[in-house]
Each structure stands twice: as C-alpha cells, then as structure tokens.
Amino acid sequence: MTLAERLRVALDHVHEPELLPGDHPGVAIDGERTPAAVLVAVTDRPKPGLILTQRTESLRRHAGQVAFPGGRIDPSDLDAADAALREAEEEIALPRAAVTLIGEADRYVTVTGFEVIPVVGVIPPDLEYYPNEAEVADVFEVPLAFVLDPANQLRASAEWQGRTRYFYEIRWGERRIWGATAAMLVNLSRRLRWAA
Predict the structure, then answer these.
(1) Beta strands in 105-148 (DSSP E)
(2) Is the dihedral of CA 42, 188, 113, 32 positive or negative?
(3) If DSSP codes are grouped into helix, strand and coil, which group holds residue 67?
C-alpha cells in the first residue's frame, strides 16, 4: 500500500478529536471565525517527513513561530485545498502540481478566531524550497513518526490575556513546535493510528 493510500484509509477513520481548553470557539476575541487552511505536506519516503516553516520575526502575528504553510482562505480560492496549495506556493514555492491531495483533517479553531482546515497532501522527497523572505525565515522537515508520537507531545501552560492557556508543544532539536500547529499534530496523531 502506498503512503497516499495509507493516509486516505487513516483519514477515513471515524473518531472524536480533542480540542484543547482555551482553543474552543467561545474564547475567540471577537466571536467570529476567519476561515483558513494549512498544507500538511508529508514527504513520500520510507520514513515519511513533514514540511514545516519558521516564520520571520518581523511578522505582526505569530512572529518566529513554527507553522504549516498556509493562511486565510481568500474569496478567489475554490476551497480549503486550493487555499492551502496557493499559500504553500506563495510561502515556500512548493509547486501545487507536486502535491497529491489526500483530504482534510480535523478543523481547528484558534484562540485568535481562525478556523483552520488542515489539508493533507503527499509530496516527493527532497524538493527545493524558496522561502518568501517577508514571511518565512526557514523551511525544514521533521520526521512524521516523531511529531505524531504522543510521548513527544508535551502539555504546557502560559498566561494569555489574563487566563491560563493550556497547549501542546513538541521539541525537535532546536525547534519548538507549539500552539495551534502542535494541537493540529496532536489531533492528526489521533486520527492516523498507524506507525508512520
């Protein structure tokens, strides 16, 4: 069975994902949700990897954080997959033709009011990436098995706007994957119950 076929079977598995306290829709600042999509790009190799970005320090929101390629769904986008592919092309020059779309994972509503649809796709290994210097400081690949392993998904907390916010973080070398990105990976790990 190919990686794409394994992912499709796993995404079809019915389950109840856990949304973290503080990230429920009722906590959003203005009560409204902004539709967004991210590309969960899995590299097709014997030990699959996952492509992530390090955002630039100059961004107004989420500066310096590790994130999936992605962003708001624009009115011109056909759907979430189209938005995720467009954003990945804009942010890291990932050609949309290189992505085999698998499907959508669980929606995730951030505390800042974004309703994020993770779009899972399989890509060839060892592509060349060209980060958009205004948004992306670095592009890197982490082992999929590592980020999906519950033993590496650590619970943490911090004060935010007068409340204690609980979140997950995943440490991989010098990288700190946390917040919405880590939470989407936790939900995905519960969906993908096979050994990556």
Answers:
(1) 108-109, 114-123, 136-143
(2) positive
(3) strand
